[in-house]
């Protein structure tokens, strides 16, 4: 499932009495995810919203989504059995949902931060002289 949760739950039931009866329940949530932003497992896409933003950049300034290092390996990934989808359309839906949830401007400031993360991923560092380096 491409949209599966990356979280797990550990449930612990407490019993008491004779015969035993449930007297309590404790649920612990934990993160199953490893870092996806900087290294995406082969054959998987990075977080959907990063693909949405890359597609929006394409529609606004013509930048190829594959030019972003954080999504390049999966930008063209499409399996034969995948349902057709449009990252740009999904982004439009997300913005509408953010507006209806009360986020001003549909969460635009959050998208700007995520866009910055995409661009930061393209920074490379090179060794320079002993007293300097290049970015």
UniProtKB/TrEMBL annotation:
Keyword ATP-binding: yes
Keyword NADP included in the entry's annotation: no
GO-annotated biological processes: actin filament organization
PROSITE patterns per the UniProt record, alphabetical: MYOSIN_MOTOR (PS51456)
Coiled-coil zones: none
Cellular component GO terms, alphabetical: cytoplasm; membrane; myosin complex
InterPro entries documented for this protein: Kinesin_motor_dom_sf, Myosin_head_motor_dom-like, P-loop_NTPase
Lineage top rank: taxon: Eukaryota
Protein keywords: Actin-binding, ATP-binding, Motor protein, Myosin, Nucleotide-binding
A GO term, aspect molecular function: actin filament binding
Ranges of residues in domain Myosin motor: 1-135
PANTHER family: DILUTE CLASS UNCONVENTIONAL MYOSIN, ISOFORM C, MYOSIN
Family, similarity comment: Belongs to the TRAFAC class myosin-kinesin ATPase superfamily. Myosin family.
Name of the protein in its database record: Myosin motor domain-containing protein
Species of provenance: Zooxanthella nutricula
């Amino acid at each position: 499932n491409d949209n599966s949760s990356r979280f797990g739950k550990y449930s612990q039931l407490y019993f008491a009495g004779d015969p035993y009866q449930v007297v309590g329940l404790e649920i612990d949530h934990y993160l199953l995810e490893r870092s996806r932003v900087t290294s995406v497992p082969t054959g998987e896409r990075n977080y959907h919203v990063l693909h949405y933003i890359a597609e929006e950049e394409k529609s606004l300034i013509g930048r190829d989504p594959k030019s972003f290092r954080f999504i390049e390996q999966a930008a063209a990934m499409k399996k034969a059995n995948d349902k057709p989808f449009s990252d740009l359309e999904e982004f439009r839906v997300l913005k509408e949902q953010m507006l209806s949830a009360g986020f001003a401007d549909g969460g635009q400031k959050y998208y700007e931060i995520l866009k910055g993360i995409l661009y930061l991923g393209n920074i490379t560092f090179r060794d320079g002289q002993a007293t300097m380096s290049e970015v």
